[in-house]
């Protein structure tokens, strides 16, 4: 996808908008250079903690339904409340990161989120559980709001897609390990002990993250003035390419959120009738997402950004169709393809946002994350509703419409790029 300037004011996101000197560029982190591995591992652990906490109840929804005597759609709010709150708070958190620094905000966000995570197992009712999960999601908003901006400032541009891919890979590992661990722990000791276990793991990740992440060298505090922030957001939303990328992120996540919210219910029912531990192990397919996200840079180098999005959409579609068959091996293969397509598409779209936004990158990334988690929240809720009314086929249909939206938007982007390319020679003359 072509790069486009947003025209955002320089008073917000100044850290990412200032053209660095040659010395500053040379001091940025690059693969193989000092500090790059520490930075990558620290943000990898942050991604693990974020996704493990954010989706800690997703694999446990059948048990939550039984414990509180609620339906699948009601239990799904323990996921939707967290992702919805994250979507709501990611933009304000991005403004705070401009003022107080990326590392400071990420540390504070993790500290609050893991504290709430240790309280979640003691929720006395479904309402209290949903409320705690909403607070947790709001706290976690500081991570996606700051991480990509930190990378855009501290990593050399040529290594940015790879670095963001590693962070997204941490998300996939967190999502996988959280679901696998909770599945087996819950089978023996119940969902409350399972969620507590994730909380303890997240504490360890948070501590290691703070110890490992290098201090920022290219951050300059920006303004917290609401008028300036509003102008920056307005300029980003006026950029057609950024709008398309936001929509693509939301639609990809709608597929992913819907599938993984409902898959536990499907596998507990006939003809599969799997125990909770085995269902949790199904999420090992997230390892495929780890690989596809971390190789997004090479994929873009071969196919280009739009070509990579077409491939991701096609892979996801194939997975959705395969999952309709009442055969466990084919359902698993379908989940593998859905996961690979989603994480590849997400890594390409999120890195394209950082590449496109020349100013106010924190806000540009925050808007993407907001759209992304709105898609997750909508997918979790609508996927459960579709499952309740039409079974697994209903959830798959919702996913197919979302992928169709991704392909349509990407086709429109290709047409817009060709039109612009034809206009530029004419304007030159």
Automatic annotation (TrEMBL):
Keywords: Cell membrane, Membrane, Transmembrane, Transmembrane helix, Transport
Gene3D superfamilies reported for this sequence: MFS general substrate transporter like domains (1.20.1250.20)
A Gene Ontology molecular function term of the record: transmembrane transporter activity
Cell compartments where the protein resides: Cell membrane
Residues that span the membrane, as ranges: 41-63, 75-93, 105-124, 130-152, 159-177, 189-209, 245-265, 277-296, 308-325, 331-349, 370-387, 393-413
GO CC annotations, alphabetized: plasma membrane
Membrane topology: Multi-pass membrane protein
Domain Major facilitator superfamily (MFS) profile: 35-417
One Pfam short name: MFS_1
Family the entry assigns: Belongs to the major facilitator superfamily.
Name of the protein: MFS transporter
Organism: Streptomyces olivochromogenes
